[in-house]
Design goal:
Length: about 80
């Protein structure tokens, strides 16, 4: 049954999939793929790899800070529009 508030369900599709796309690399990136993608040294890749592959959690912390800033930015713009 469709409601008038969310006909296309944009929040679950774009919002939650976007959150997953930001957080998943911080959890599942291997040191080898991180070094290959960003062209960094192996010591930095070991530190910044995903938390499930021995990373220190710096990538996850950066991802969460980015998401908080993004939510604040969107909330500010949406409140200005409405």
């Amino acid at each position: 049954m469709y409601t008038t508030t969310q006909v296309v369900d944009a929040t679950p599709i774009h919002g939650m999939c976007g959150v997953l796309g930001v957080v998943a690399p911080a959890c599942f990136a291997t040191p080898k793929m991180y070094a290959q993608t960003y062209g960094v040294s192996s010591s930095r890749a070991d530190r910044c790899a995903g938390i499930f592959y021995g990373g220190s959690g710096e990538s996850l912390a950066a991802s969460l800070v980015f998401l908080a800033a993004l939510v604040a930015w969107v909330a500010l713009l949406v409140s200005a529009v409405f």
